[in-house]
From TrEMBL:
<dbReference type="InterPro" id="IPR005148">
    <property type="entry name" value="Arg-tRNA-synth_N"/>
</dbReference>
<dbReference type="InterPro" id="IPR001412">
    <property type="entry name" value="aa-tRNA-synth_I_CS"/>
</dbReference>
<dbReference type="InterPro" id="IPR001278">
    <property type="entry name" value="Arg-tRNA-ligase"/>
</dbReference>
<dbReference type="InterPro" id="IPR036695">
    <property type="entry name" value="Arg-tRNA-synth_N_sf"/>
</dbReference>
<feature type="domain" description="Arginyl tRNA synthetase N-terminal">
    <location>
        <begin position="5"/>
        <end position="85"/>
    </location>
</feature>
<dbReference type="InterPro" id="IPR035684">
    <property type="entry name" value="ArgRS_core"/>
</dbReference>
<dbReference type="GO" id="GO:0004814">
    <property type="term" value="F:arginine-tRNA ligase activity"/>
</dbReference>
<protein>
    <recommendedName>
        <fullName>Arginine--tRNA ligase</fullName>
        <ecNumber>6.1.1.19</ecNumber>
    </recommendedName>
</protein>
<dbReference type="InterPro" id="IPR008909">
    <property type="entry name" value="DALR_anticod-bd"/>
</dbReference>
<dbReference type="Pfam" id="PF03485">
    <property type="entry name" value="Arg_tRNA_synt_N"/>
</dbReference>
<dbReference type="GO" id="GO:0005737">
    <property type="term" value="C:cytoplasm"/>
</dbReference>
<dbReference type="GO" id="GO:0006420">
    <property type="term" value="P:arginyl-tRNA aminoacylation"/>
</dbReference>
<feature type="short sequence motif" description="'HIGH' region">
    <location>
        <begin position="121"/>
        <end position="131"/>
    </location>
</feature>
<keyword id="KW-0067">ATP-binding</keyword>
<keyword id="KW-0030">Aminoacyl-tRNA synthetase</keyword>
<keyword id="KW-0963">Cytoplasm</keyword>
<dbReference type="GO" id="GO:0005524">
    <property type="term" value="F:ATP binding"/>
</dbReference>
Amino acid sequence: MTFQQDLESRLSAAVASVIGESAATPVTAATDLRFGDYQSNAAMVLAKQRKTNPRALAQEIIDRVDLAGLATAEIAGPGFLNFRILPGAYAAAVTRLLGDAKLGVPDVGAGRTVVVDFSAPNVAKPMHVGHIRSTIIGDSLSRIARFLGFNVITDNHIGDWGTQFGMILYGWKNLLDNAAIVTDPIAELLRVYREVNSLIKADPTVLDACKLELVKLQAGDEQNTSIWHQCIEVSKQGLQKIYDRLDVTFDHWLGESFYNDRLPGLVEEFVARDIARVSDGATCIFASGKLPDEQDPFRVHKEDGWTDNPAIIRKADGGFLYATTDLATLEYRTDTWKADHIWYVVGVPQSLHFRQIFDAAERWGKHCDYRHVAFGSILGEDRKLMKTRSGDNVQLIDVLEEAVERAAKAIAEKNPEIPADEAAQIAETVGIGAVKFAELSQNRLTDYVFSWDRMLALQGDTAPYLQYSNVRIRSIFRKLETPFDVATASIVLGEEAEIHLARLIVRFAEVLPTVIDDHRPNLLANYLLELARAFHSFFEACPVLKADEPVRSSRLALCDLTSRVLSTGLGLLGIKVPERM
Ligand code: ARG
């Protein structure tokens, strides 16, 4: 049980004995440590409901609450309850964590399945920095959910079936460089795609030729199907290289094409069940009339009032759309995988699409906790959408390479004695860690400005700072003549800096579940920064190796735990820690 849960249950027992019935008594971490470690506004809320004096009620609760061995309590302002955890309780809690591989983190997800839909680039188009956000956030949320005990299924829902294949097929047949498609398939497919695009601009008949290729593919033409397969294969291999570098894995790669066979039947079912109807030849899902207009994703506001904004699931020419595939996809995930939650880590511009398919899914009876985990854009230092000097979208792989290069330079300057192959490995860990942390320490919904210097700084809110903090801790242990056995240590807390470090170590188990409440890895990232800062203050104020026993062992154990929380926490953000740097 965390301190927060312990306080809540003791408080609720006291409240029940004061007011004669049970009531909610939420406790949160204090916003300002001067007032204590935890706080509750339960007395104020209850007093308001019961029209009594809040301070008097708070006093009655404090008189009854049994906080023995745990905390002291105080009333503040209009009736806040403030709790201060006893140093002895912190010491006991930290001692328990010494032997706990999960660092006190509760299995809040046990028995529940969550499907995480992230990355999902479109084949034959490059993965750009926009995809970096989905890949990094999705991977981190998956790792965190797994650590919290959820059964996690990660699925890379790649766009492997779209109108772009008309152009790709035409280009493959007419423009392909057979050597380049082997050495750098993603770049070659992109080149072909771009070249066909400009051909179309110059000569519109090329577009007709492309459409013809697409129709042939959709009709199952043998040659086109085989080219399509090759195209998917080389693209997947190219993507896999990037994922390997990022240390991102997927349980499945069920792309859009996986659902092709299901689409006609799905549309029929929607019509038969009156969820969709034909309008101007297209099959559409309209507003159900059950929601107020402003909440209904199938209605939008235009100058002359509310108007229909249907989701089309079959075009008049018989073609299926993104929404159709997404409905088939969520059906598979809820029926076959028995998903309790599905998290779609996709940019803000698709929010209307997701509101529509979630609403349609509910009407269809596919109940599940669907979440669009949306995110904003990455801006260049000029605060405009990030572009290369030539005006193209920046490609993910280039970002990673530059990060690693810059990290390598910094390491060579700082630590020239590290052998070249180890230095290269550290540069990879630091550079990629820096890119990931810059992403994950932001509120995902805000547009963030990409800054090399800021993300790679050793002093600052960065991955290198956290990695370096961990390296410093590990170096303490390298200095020891006899190896230190944490299991035999017991924690004694005296100095304020020591108590604060213990407070933060214990808080890991409370912070982690809040990350998935609203899918915000930045809560974990910011917590880790706070922990590292607390460690540095502790290390300045409290001698470790020079202290006498039992303080020396206790402080060594605090160092060891801090390092475990840092490396576990960074690991949950998908960031590795080097041994030295
Ligand atoms: N391929 C899409 C894109 O790049 C993202 C797919 C997201 N997942 C989904 N189930 N719609 O925009």
